[in-house]
Design goal:
alpha+beta; seven-stranded antiparallel sheet; four-stranded mixed sheet; 6 helices
Length: 304
Amino acid sequence: MNFGYIASDRKVLTDPSINEAGGSNAWAVAPSRSASGKAMLLANPHLPWAPSQLTYYEAQITAPGLAIYGATQVGLPVLRFGFNNDLGFTNTVNTMQGFTSYKLVLEGDGYRFDGKTLPFDTVTKSYKVKQADGTLKSVSFEQKSTLHGPVFTLPDGKTTVALKVAGLDRPGVLEQYLEMGKARDWGAFEKALRKMQVVMFNIIYADRAGHILYLDNGLLPKHASGDLKYWSAPVPGDTSATLWKDVHSYDDMPKLIDPATGFVQNANDPPWLATWPRALDPKSFPAYVAPVGPMSQRARCRSS
């Protein structure tokens, strides 16, 4: 999730605005807006048929304390979209800027930071390449790192950056999805969300009691200033002023719980059009949380 969605090589090395997951949609409708008087949830992930890390399969898991039906990526032992007898949840890829590229100032055999020249940390790594005759050849390389993270040279051949990615200290993503699937009411589900182990993805939810949720979920670095455009491009890496040390909490993130509008939706857009009329104001959040617009036609159609 960290290096497929948040900090893929295409995002880090070429274009940070790239959407790595196509066009998923999700709706949750409150009882007040449904003909049946019951809450409804629709999960509509748009994922490729071709085998890849995005390949999903349908599954039902029945075990002590767990009975859930839904879908997940091949290889994962828990469901990422699903419903049990009391609630359901789904994901869409969001606009979370969960990584920062730091432009380095090289000096000698090191890099500048807060007026000093620091040495790189260097380790030797290797990977195997299959040859024409079927044998495997080991290729070794040196990976340099700074106090920010691993070092890369951008395609222009001139710019050297260090990469810092949120969530590499959060190993409990599958455990959180398991707890979400085992939950039987909103209180238990929110307790699972508060673990903040799922590193990105909007979470849309509905339950038998009639509650609905939109959450702009993920691990968002805390910055003192700057907007999304600033933090999406390489920022100065020679000063501690730009080095973030923490991420936002669950309580900080844009969310709608049982909005008066009676529905929530997302089509991979920023959170500001999660319902209509709008109930989330971009001015109430840091400018780097998400872009203000423009909104896609998918989002406009699904919220109208």
